[in-house]
From TrEMBL:
The lineage of its organism: Eukaryota, Fungi, Fungi incertae sedis, Mucoromycota, Glomeromycotina. It comes from Diversispora epigaea. The chain crosses the membrane at residues 7-31, 78-101, 113-136, 148-170. The keyword Transmembrane helix applies. This is Uncharacterized protein. It comes from the Eukaryota. Keywords: Membrane, Transmembrane, Transmembrane helix.
Amino acid sequence: MPTLVAYALTSVLFTVSYFFTILATVLPNWLLFSTPNPFRVTTNYGLFKKCRGECRVFPSSDENDCDEKNFCEEWEGAAAAMIFAAIIGGLVWLNLVNALVSGRAGRARAWKGITVLLLLHALLQFTAVFLIAHLYTTSNRFYFGTKYDISFIFTNISASFSVVLAIILLMNGVLSHPEYVVIY
């Protein structure tokens, strides 16, 4: 059974990971395109906005963003995956807090559910990363010079962190000795 210290450390580390998830979801910085000098123009692509000086909704059928086959569906799928990852991350955080304030019996059972939620959190984030990476490599919209930006990196870090935390918590739950032994 994981100890109170293990849950506290997991809570602190997951809070950092969850902060990265929220930042990656709201910042319009998944892909970055910059034109060469002397007329430098920067375009940021986010899950919900495209910013070139001013921001607008992205993707938008009014702006002909959905002309390519399945572009809008995949982009919106990535956005939905990140929203669900943020919701699952909130559930992970609540379960970690619950494990911290509950007694021994609650901590003995909590690691199983938290491990599953951490893996689901990471899976949803990796799904968003995969969809954006697929569009980045196959879409004609992203010209030579487009590169991954900070939100893409934050999502990879957060998802990797969640997997590592899930493995550590699973190993701690499976391999640690029970805090007490029932006497019959």
